[in-house]
# Entry
Amino acid sequence: MSDYKRLTKNEPQSNVETMLNYARCKDKEVFIYDEQGNDVKLTEYIAKHAQEECGVTAEDIMEGCCFECMDCPLGILNTIAIQATELHYRLAELEDKIETGKLVELSEKTK
# Structure
C-alpha cells in the first residue's frame, strides 16, 4: 500500500485541512465554517449575509434561487460550495474504501 494521506477529515487540524474540508455534507445539507470556525448550514450563512442585498431566506436558497444570481458573490459561493461538497463526499467514500481494504491500489508492475 502507498503512503496515501487522507484528504477528507471530520476534524481538520490545520489551515490546509480546514481548507480541503471547508464545504462538507451532513444530514444531506451543505455545511461550511463561519467566521469563528463554527459549523453553519450554507443556506443559513448565505441568507444571513444576503439580507442587505436581496433578502433571500434559507428556504429560498434550498429551492434554488441562488442559481439564478451568478453575478452575486453569494450565488457564486453557493454554487462552488455545493460542487465542493459533492466532490468531498465522493472522495470520502473512496478513502473509506481504501482504509477498509475494499478498494486496493495496483502496483506499477500490474498496471
User: Anything to note?
Assistant: The longest helix spans residues 73-100.
